[in-house]
Amino acid sequence: MYKMTATFMLHTCVCFSAVADEGMWLFNALPEEHLKQQHGFEVSPEWAEHLMLSSVRFNSGGSASFISSNGLVLTNHHVASDTLYKLSTADRNLANDGYLATDLQAELKAPDLELNQLVSIEDVTDTVNQAVKATMTPAEASKARQATMAKIESESKAATGMRSDVVTLYGGGRYHLYRYKKYTDVRLVWAPEAQAAFFGGDADNFEYPRYCLDVTIFRVYEDGKPAQIEHFLEVNPDGAVHDDLVFVSGNPGRTQRILTADALEYQRDYRMPRILNLLRRKEILMQQYALGGPEQARRGQDALFGLQNSRKAYTGMLAGLQNPEFIDGKRAGESQLQNQAGSDQPWRVISDVQRQRIELQKRSGSLRGRIYGIAEDIVLLTAEDQQPSEQRLREFRDSNRQSLEQALFSPAPLYDDLERFELADELARFCEIRGGSDPLVVKVLDGQGPRERAAALIQDTQLFDVEYRKQLVSSGWSGVESCQDPLIKLARLLNPEYRALRAMQEELDEQERQAYAKIADAKFQLEGESVYPDATFTLRLAFGLVKSYQQDGQTIPSNTTLGGAFDHQAAHGKQGEWVLPDTWEQAKDKINSSAPYNFVCTADIIGGNSGSPVVDRQGRMVGIIFDGNIQSLTADFYHEEQQGRAVAVHIAAVLEALDKIYDADELKQQIGK
Amino acid sequence: MYKMTATFMLHTCVCFSAVADEGMWLFNALPEEHLKQQHGFEVSPEWAEHLMLSSVRFNSGGSASFISSNGLVLTNHHVASDTLYKLSTADRNLANDGYLATDLQAELKAPDLELNQLVSIEDVTDTVNQAVKATMTPAEASKARQATMAKIESESKAATGMRSDVVTLYGGGRYHLYRYKKYTDVRLVWAPEAQAAFFGGDADNFEYPRYCLDVTIFRVYEDGKPAQIEHFLEVNPDGAVHDDLVFVSGNPGRTQRILTADALEYQRDYRMPRILNLLRRKEILMQQYALGGPEQARRGQDALFGLQNSRKAYTGMLAGLQNPEFIDGKRAGESQLQNQAGSDQPWRVISDVQRQRIELQKRSGSLRGRIYGIAEDIVLLTAEDQQPSEQRLREFRDSNRQSLEQALFSPAPLYDDLERFELADELARFCEIRGGSDPLVVKVLDGQGPRERAAALIQDTQLFDVEYRKQLVSSGWSGVESCQDPLIKLARLLNPEYRALRAMQEELDEQERQAYAKIADAKFQLEGESVYPDATFTLRLAFGLVKSYQQDGQTIPSNTTLGGAFDHQAAHGKQGEWVLPDTWEQAKDKINSSAPYNFVCTADIIGGNSGSPVVDRQGRMVGIIFDGNIQSLTADFYHEEQQGRAVAVHIAAVLEALDKIYDADELKQQIGK
Q1: Which of residues 446-465 of B touch A (CB under 8 A)?
Q2: How far lies A86's CA from each of A90, A342, B414, in Å?
Q3: Using omega within 30 degrees of 0 as the cis cutoff, is the peptide bond preceding A138 cis?
């Protein structure tokens, strides 16, 4: 699934030049010439603006679009699953069983969703770069740059009231100010069953052909009423036939296409194997937790799905890197760029940074897990508040406060047994990373084994109580500094090491930023403006053709049908993850079995694009992205167009399912209007 | 489950002194005084010899006993599972469905089982040590020692016809020659369903209370007829009541109780985390393979169970090491030993060896997996055959040839899709360990990604054909040297690195052997002869009391009952792994529900003890070991008697099940007679 793996975010962002239908293009720098020449399509400013304003970003790591004038938002089930999970209880499993609000009163408010609608982009490169003087050390440069960025953001927020983010593009070659309208009252309207949305489970994930109704509908509210939406997508249920040109408007999370060969080797030999070890560890852990019983299985389900998804994605990415041809080819191409740049100095800097990153892996000043994350956030937030906004760690700047508090004070349920289970493993992992004799480990464990220590911490903390968290934050640093809550004490204990490592990482990031900016300049000079920046979880336009492909000597058709889902179920003996919901069996005779269900196109996407609308030349919705096939998993490093494909749910299947399977004709009637 | 995790064998073996009912005692040095004083039990030579000769070792990693005069052997279902798996096909899943041979003709011959019955022990310490001169380097010493051991073994085999193994005890303090009668015609008589044997699955594994019929019965044959067995165990279905003294006669695989604090830190911070990463990786891999369909699930099942079991065991072991008290206590105790030894030199040597082991982890000259293992064995075996037996790598000595060939030429099925899946992962892992730019990795991948390379290797190799393997071996090194089979070529390519690493490891092992021999001497001097050696997968006697224990404020009774299995099923909603087989449901009313089912005792056991008979003071069988509880998982490093317990199936339950559930009264009548 192409949701962003938010826990493994980028540490740098880079750029690449486009061939064929490759590219994740900025809305203020669309590839007009290429579209005109290759596809005879002229991008009008109105077309682009309408699509941009109809697109929405989910803070939980995905994309979406407005699909009605009365606030309906269409995204993936697996993007919504975080919210479905938080709205569920032991007696009501929305993620598994689905939901349909029969009227407005029945629409369920998400505890902590934030939706962002991009409304403008402004180039602030000069302002940001002017803050950095040539004489500054990397640490000073990083601080100065961040201070300027925070200042630009604060001023923008004050002037416009909008969420304002300065985005680093081309690895540091450009800085753009993105302004967003925020929606924080988001309510669940409809979700199908997990059996329909994730039909075929982990086995079919990242495979094709597929048969998944991976969609969910929310509605945004303002002032307690459905929001009036000016820009929303009409639908075209007849579109996306073979060879059609289609566009994808969404928020790809991270690509690393300009990485130097040395940086790629670091990814291949250190970072990715390490991440995979972590993912597999947590996947087994969550499987073990789920063995505790049906309620434990439910509590752990969302995390487990996310881990499986990431593990499969990273396995594919690492396989791409381990193919010797790729990095060899990359290295061969570097000499031309180095000639253009007049020096290999940026490459040497990057190479040196990788060596330092390997060293940093032997330290850790933090623990994963929601409850420890809350403790850490409270300690950092109150400490940072003692300084002016511009001097704080970036996520604690004033302009981000509202979003941060929405997460920190979320009423979403936390489960003490699950938190204890995860914290015990995190303490063990902390011990493994630093070694059991490390003085900080000794202090953290406080004479106990990881399990006993975690049990004591979870038993005695008050942080499960949202009101207590609010009190702590409002007490400021003086309150937090003397707080005796054991998790707050633990976060205080780790705080100096966390800060030391964070500072070192930011210094390395700045060195890479400056180096990649030079490499990007060389690329601009060599290849003109036909260059798109690496993905940054901001709105981009991709495009491509609806297109079949060859695999193992067979032609894989560009689309599947609703009837094919029943055939696929039969082919797998109607067992395991290949069991359609009862609602489907009951509606089987009513469904138009030849209606298109899922389809593929060559558009260049990656995690974060989940939920992106797929539109036709007229800007009408024809589908919604939810996955890429296994061949596309190299997308972090390069776009593969021979076999690599983006996978979408066809809008015709959504409409058919609402009508024939889910008795939601009234909802269906609102869509596109 | 307490099967030996044969894939992660010991690299050294050590010794420890006993308190309470701790200890895995040599049959030629039983703790007679302790048994007399603590338990009023006098060990007679006849009692001990009868028990020794009634005990059997499985080469697949477990223990067992003779239970009838006509060759019946009782072991665990999970010890037998390797054979059940090899005897299964797509249409006949013996591991899941169980089996009952209704007459001798229906007994199924295991493809490659070897059973060893220990018949004598002889101290050869002086001979072995005389081979090593003080002036020798560790490498020379290691070679000289191994040559002498191989010579002793060959001479013994020639003189007696028996399997003859020189066993290194007390980490090098003693060398004993063990002679075994071998049984290689071993046939399956009866196995229950996996649902009964492994009731509660991974969740209940290493937990207590338990309800598992973890048993299987084989029969050994000689000259095509059931072997006549002089020493077999009678049974006592009324025994093993609370507070009874019981004995366990079996083959604990490996303990590391004398490890120095520095060696324990190496285990805690490097070796165990690394093994756990590997186990989790392979567990996820086999889960993924099983998603391919029911037949893939069957093909991968035995491996998956083994991986889960090891992962859970190692997790418990590491948790024990991560408790700060343990290593702190160990270090505190070392000064007394160092005073006795008159030097801390052995401790410094061991500390230095650990540092070198960490460096060795960055290299690899081998790949896991059955088909590559066959290629490697053929390359090594034919190369080693060019030298006299005493100078070969130890496993290729003449006296071991028969056992080696039984494994190498086994007709047990190999599945090309499974081997391809595993080999692809091994090539990826090889790339991760050494780094993708390593020249050897580049040669191994031969320009392809791991998946493509594995597919090509598996497609083109002829090693799936047993006859081809035999031809290759008989062609000798000259045939193998010019062989163009791609897996043989790959094993030849890796061979120099394999040998280099092996030599370094043996050098380190020898350094440790000499150092631990000195530490063992110091211990002997301090504590007299009340010292047992660390486990070496050779026959040992343990003992203890059938005893309840306290956990979370509750008393855990020393035994469960057959009726309790139905209650346990109901408590878990009769779902997942908590579903008893149909045979049990059908027999429910006939079963004596109060018959003892599983029970615990304080005996000191570890992996490899699976299948060990538990006997009473009269030497009659009262049960069969199959597991330890979670608190006992520290046993690698120390025996925990407060809560740690060995878990056994009561013999009464076996007899009751044969009679009432499995319609095997005729088989039952043979047992103990």
Answers
A1: 447-452
A2: 11, 54, 46
A3: no
Q: How far is CA A295 from CA A77, A666, B569, in A?
A: 21, 34, 17
Helix (H) or strand (E) holding A154: helix A138-160
To test the contact with chain A by mutation, choose from B432, B440, B445, B634 the residue with the greatest count of A C-beta atoms within 10 A, namely B432
Domain range annotation of chain B: 6-114+184-246+543-670
Give the residue-averaged pLDDT of A377-392. Answer: 97
Q: Does B325 touch chain A (CB under 8 A)?
A: yes
Minimal C-alpha gap between A225 and chain B (Å)? 44
Q: A626 vs chain B: nearest CA distance in angstroms?
A: 21
A628-632 long-range contacts (CB < 8 A, ≥24 apart) are A628/A2, A628/A206, A629/A206, A629/A207, A629/A208, A629/A600, A630/A206, A630/A207, A630/A316, A631/A551, A632/A605
Are B458 and B419 a contacting pair, CB within 8 Å?
yes
Cα–Cα distance measured from residue A436 to residue A25, given in angstroms and rounded to the nearest whole number: 48
B6-114+184-246+543-670 CATH: 2.40.10.120
Phi first, then psi, for residue A83 (nearest 5°) are -75, -40
- Give the tens place of pLDDT for each residue, A251-284: 999 999 989 999 999 999 999 999 999 999 999 9
In tens, the pLDDT along B87-143 reads 999 999 999 999 999 999 999 999 999 999 999 999 999 999 999 999 999 999 999
For the cut 70, the answer to whether the pLDDT of residue A435 exceeds it is yes
d(CA A462, CA B89): 56
User: Across the strands, what pairs with B648?
Assistant: B599, B625
The H or E element containing residue A222 is strand A216-222
The Cα A404–Cα A393 span in angstroms is: 13
- Mean pLDDT confidence for B210-238: 98
Is pLDDT at B615 greater than 90 in this prediction? yes
Judged by CB atoms closer than 8 Å, whether chains meet at A447 and B324 is answered as: yes
Report d(CA A375, CA A381) in Å as an integer.
Answer: 10
Residue B11's pLDDT is: 34
- ipTM of the complex, rounded to two decimals: 0.93
Give the mean pLDDT of B232-256: 96
Q: Which residues contact B128 (CB under 8 A, 6 or more apart)?
A: B145, B148, B149, B152, B166, B175
Buried/exposed B541-550: b ≥16 CB within 10 Å, e otherwise:
bbbbbbbbbe
Residue at B584: amino acid letter? W
Please tell me if residue A431 touches chain B, with a CB cutoff of 8 Å. yes
CATH fold, domain A8-24+44-114+184-257+534-670, is Thrombin, subunit H (2.40.10)
Q: How far is A673 from chain B (nearest CA, A)?
A: 43
Q: pLDDT digit string (tens) for A458-489?
A: 999 999 999 999 999 999 999 999 999 999 99
Amino acid at B259: L
CA distance A83 to A559: 30
> What residues of chain A lie within 8 A of the CB of B428, using their CB?
318-319, 322
pLDDT at A4 (0 to 100):
62
Q: What is the pLDDT of residue A160?
A: 97
- Closest chain B residue by Cα to residue A204: B291
Q: Which pairing describes strands B185-191 and B108-109: parallel, antiparallel, or unpaired?
A: antiparallel
